[in-house]
């Protein structure tokens, strides 16, 4: 009788230091709005532009153009969307309008639309079909709109809904894709927005990122929530169009300033600041020069430089620190300088 090997009887495990670190600057897919390979919801009451926001994110990731005209794409790639409540010509028209607003060629956009009349992710057959589609297209972002049309489960039953959420989490991990579900908020007065998601509390607990759209005092506001990052203040939005009524798109409504408030974006990590400072300099930079420029503690700077050197992203010379190769674009291109 054959004896089972350890690989057949144990779960895989490694010592924590053996886990590779995430590349610097890749914590977001849409900076400040959605984390890289994050799962979660675009939530809101009916008719608050939830689908518009989801499509804006999908077009942005597929085209590497800033989401809502303000938020940079850090993990671009193809996108896959399914809008269960919209006819295919209407889906095309919405996406074409966003592309027209951004001067993008629709035919060159790597955005795919699931055309099945129905997708039921509580069935093994449709789970297998979605998994096969993700394996073939390898999108960076998957938008499913709305959740209620993807199953026939009792959303108030944690037992039933957790199985569906578990499948989507598995898809996220296997295919390394950000998963965005559009879902309705209930009418729980005074509830935290995440807790107001209609159905079981498992929905809110499952999410890495949430984007809630609510109308407040006559204006549309986007409120963000992240498991592992600060959220910032609410962002005012409006649905706009060209003079002829076409090119419909969501846009940020400016307040006193012409730019997004600084606290609407997460702080840029120190390693990214170092890399950008080196990109902007024609000469190697000494540690003292970097410390003065970045106004950072010497110990923190040293730790960050050591990590970047270990990753092969900076080189130490007799004259100071420099990049191993030139010509890399600035990480600050889509963020206003202080």
Task: Give a structural overview.
The chain is an alpha/beta fold and 338 residues long. The chain has two domains: 21-264, P-loop containing nucleotide triphosphate hydrolases (Rossmann fold); 270-322, Arc Repressor Mutant, subunit A. Helices cover 30% and strands 19% of the residues. The strands form three sheets. The protein has a nine-stranded mixed sheet with strand order 5-4-6-7-3-8-9-10-11, sandwiched between helices. A two-stranded antiparallel sheet has the order 1-2. A two-stranded antiparallel sheet has the order 12-13. α2 (50-63) packs across α3 (88-101). 32% of the residues are buried. Mean pLDDT is 86; it is low at 256-266 and 326-338.
Write out key terms for the chains shown:
13 strands, 338 residues, two-stranded antiparallel sheet, nine-stranded mixed β-sheet, Rossmann fold, Arc Repressor Mutant, subunit A, alpha/beta, single chain, disordered C terminus
């Amino acid at each position: 009788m054959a004896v089972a090997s350890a690989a057949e009887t144990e779960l895989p495990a490694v010592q924590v230091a053996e886990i590779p670190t995430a590349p610097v600057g890749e914590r977001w897919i849409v900076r400040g709005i959605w984390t890289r390979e994050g799962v979660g919801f675009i939530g809101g009451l009916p008719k608050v532009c939830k689908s518009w926001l989801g499509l804006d994110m999908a077009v942005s990731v597929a085209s590497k153009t800033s989401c809502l005209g303000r938020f940079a794409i850090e993990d671009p790639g193809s996108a896959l969307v399914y809008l269960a409540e919209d006819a295919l010509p209407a889906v095309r028209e919405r996406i074409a309008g966003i592309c027209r607003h951004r001067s993008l060629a629709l035919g060159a956009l790597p955005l795919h639309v699931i055309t099945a009349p129905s997708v039921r992710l509580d069935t093994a057959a449709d789970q297998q079909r979605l998994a096969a589609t993700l394996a073939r297209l390898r999108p960076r972002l998957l938008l499913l709109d709305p959740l209620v049309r993807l199953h026939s489960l009792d959303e108030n039953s944690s037992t039933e809904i957790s199985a569906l959420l578990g499948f989507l989490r598995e898809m996220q991990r296997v295919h390394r894709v950000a998963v965005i579900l559009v879902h309705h908020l209930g009418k729980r007065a005074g509830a935290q927005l995440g807790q107001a998601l209609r159905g079981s509390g498992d929905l809110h607990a499952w999410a890495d990122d949430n984007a809630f759209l609510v109308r407040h005092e006559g204006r549309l506001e986007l409120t963000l929530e992240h498991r592992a990052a600060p959220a910032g203040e609410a962002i005012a939005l409006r649905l706009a169009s060209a003079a002829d009524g076409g090119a419909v798109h969501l846009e940020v409504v400016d307040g006193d300033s012409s730019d997004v408030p600084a606290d609407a974006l997460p702080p840029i990590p120190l390693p990214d600041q170092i890399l950008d400072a080196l990109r902007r300099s024609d000469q190697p930079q000494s540690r003292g020069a970097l410390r003065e420029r970045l106004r950072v503690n010497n110990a923190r700077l040293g730790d960050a430089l050591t990590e970047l050197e270990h990753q092969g992203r900076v080189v130490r010379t007799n004259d100071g620190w420099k990049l191993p190769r030139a010509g890399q674009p600035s990480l600050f291109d889509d963020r206003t300088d202080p």
